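Appendix B, record 7
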Amino acid sequence: MFSHILRRCFHTPFKLQRNVCPLSRSPSLNPASVYATKLQAFHTSPPFFKKKTPKESETKDLGVLQRSMKSLKDSPKPALYLSLAGLIPFVSVPLLMVIQGTYSPELAFAQITYGAVTVSFLGGKRWGFALPENSPAKPDWLNLANSTVPPLFAWQALLFKDATRGAIMLVMALGIALHYDLSLLPTYPGWFKVLRVVGTVVMVLSLLATAALKTISEEQLGNRRNKWQNTKQ
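Structure tokens (predicted):
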């Protein structure tokens, strides 16, 4: 009887251990679950490694454009309307040439003359900005001497007999004047800078359009002369 009790006491723990061991295994030790966890960790990427989508870049571009248009709307009405009206002589010259279908040297010279006057005005307004006592720009050699550079380019444009060279000279003068207004005098208000950019782009495109029409007209005239000479021979 005593030996039977001892046998029961010694064999019971082993039976319990065999029954408990399968239950003691954690599901995380399963090879399939471990492999799935590794795959999940491998495919997970931090958010800062993701590339920007085209929609995000387009949204930023639209934001800059909207801010520019908003600042342009904030400009004083006289400055906005007078600036837009001042672009009419530039745009009307190539437009009239296209409508008439012929290149007009008189209209081209009128556009270059008006462009020279405009460039001189853009250069001279820096004196008006630098001369007041409370102005952030000082009337030093840098500000006052730089204002004479665009008028010199304008004068040189009037000396050219070729309208194409005169237009190119005016384009250079407009670029210099715009650089002065945007970089050297950052205290200008935002609406004025946007207005200057828009006006410069329109003036440059109008001058280049006139130069292109002159080149096309000369090519057509040359082709006609060649045909006439060929038929005469």
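Remarks on this record: The CA atoms of residues 45 and 111 lie 60 Å apart. DSSP finds ten helices and no strands in the chain.
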